[in-house]
Amino acid sequence: MHTNDPALTDLVVAALRDRLRNRPPLNHPGQADKLDRVLAGLIGPEGNDPAKILRLWTEHLAPTVIAVDSPRFLSFVPASPTQAAVLFDMLVSCSSVQGVSWLLASGPIAAENQVLRLLADLAGLPAAAGGCFVSGGSAGNLSALVTARDTVRRRRGLGPYDRVRFAVSDQAHSSIGNTLRIIGAEPFVVPTAGHRLTGPALRAALRADADPSDIIGVAATAGTTNAGIIDDLAGIASVTRDFDLWLHVDGAYGGAGLLAPSVRHRYRGIEHADSLVIDPHKWLFAPFDCAALLYRNPRLARAAHTQHASYLDALHSDDATRWDPSDYAHHLSRRARGLPLWFSLAVHGTRAYSEAIEKALALARDTAALIRNTPHLELVREPELSAVLFRRTGWTAEDYGQWSARLLAGQTAFVAPTGWEGETVARFAFLHPETTLETVKEIVDTTA
Asked: Cα angle at 83 between 16 and 3, to 5 degrees?
C-alpha cells in the first residue's frame, strides 16, 4: 500500500494537469440517490483499479462540484487561487508537510510567519504582532474570542462561570454568534444605522445598558459578507480604549482590501485591533483552507491556547526565537496551510495582488452603474467593496430562486439570492480577476 507506484502517479498527475490547464464548467448539484448508486460497494476488503476510481471521480463526482473558482461563480464569497498557489499546495500535500511546531517544521513556519508579518504590517499592527494560519474565519474567530475571554477575565478578576458579553452588530458573521455560544458568552447587539457599527452607537449602547461591566469585548467587521460593509473601526477603537474592551476585527472577506489603495482609508482604526482575521482563501487567491489569525500581543494567545501534556514537552521551549503555531489557536495538528500563499506572493509580488483586488472593486462600481441605468433594476446600496446588492422590481422570493436556478442550469452563472432587511434580493460577489463586465451584462439581461 505504501510502495511507490509510478503508474498511479502518472495517472493522477495527468488528471491534475488537465484540471489546471482547462477551466471547469460551473457544474450542477448532484442527486443523492444517483451518487449512492455510483459509490455503492466501492470500499471493501479488496481494492480497485486506480484508473477505474479516477474515472468514477471524473465522470460522476467532480461534475457535482460547483466550481467556486469559475469567473462565473458570483455567490457567497468566491475563490480564485493562483496557479502558483495551487501547485505549491500540491507539493505541501504530497510532502506531508505539517506545521505544528518549530521543532518539526521550522522552515515552513518561518515562511508562514513572513506572510503573517506582511499582513500585520498592512494592518499597522506592532512589530511584536503574530499568530498562525487556521482553517477559516470560523476557526479564527473562535480562537481569537477564546483569547479575548480568558485575557479580560483575568484582567478583571472574573471567575470561569461569570457572565460575559461581546458587543456585535446585526451584520456580524454567523460564526461570531456560533463562537459566542461555544465559549459561553452572550452577544450584546448594538443598534446600527445602515448596518454599520459605529463608535458613537457603541458608546451610547454601553452607557444605556443597566450593567455593562460584563461586556468584555467588541467583534467588529472589516467587510461584512452580505454587503461588504466596513465598520467604523477608528470610532470603535476609541470606545474600546475608554471602556477597557478587547477589539477583535473579523476581516475574513474584506481584510484583503488593505492591499487596495482605493479603499485603504476605509480601514482606518484597524491598527488598534487586539486580534484580526483575514481569509486568504477568499480575496488573497490562496486555495482552501487558509485563514490568517493575528494578535497584537501573541503572548496572550499562548496563555489561552498552549496545550500541556507529557508527550508534548519536547515541543515546548523557552527559546523566544522558536514559534509554535499550535500555541495560538484551538488546534494542535495542522497542515502548513500558509505555504501556498507564501509561494504565490513570492512569485507574483504584492503589486499583482493589489491590481487583482482593485479590478474586483472597479467591477463592483461599474456594475452598480449598470444597475442604476437599467430601468427594471434598483441598487440596494452603493458597494463599499466587491459585493453588489440589487433588486428586480416586481419579483418575489420565488422569482429570484427560479432565476438563479435558470442561470445555473444554463451554465451562465451561479448567482444565489440573499436577504436584506426582510426582503429577498439579488447579490453579486466579485473576486475573480477574470470576471468581466460583459459577463455581468449577460446576466443582467436575463432579468428583463
From this structure: 35
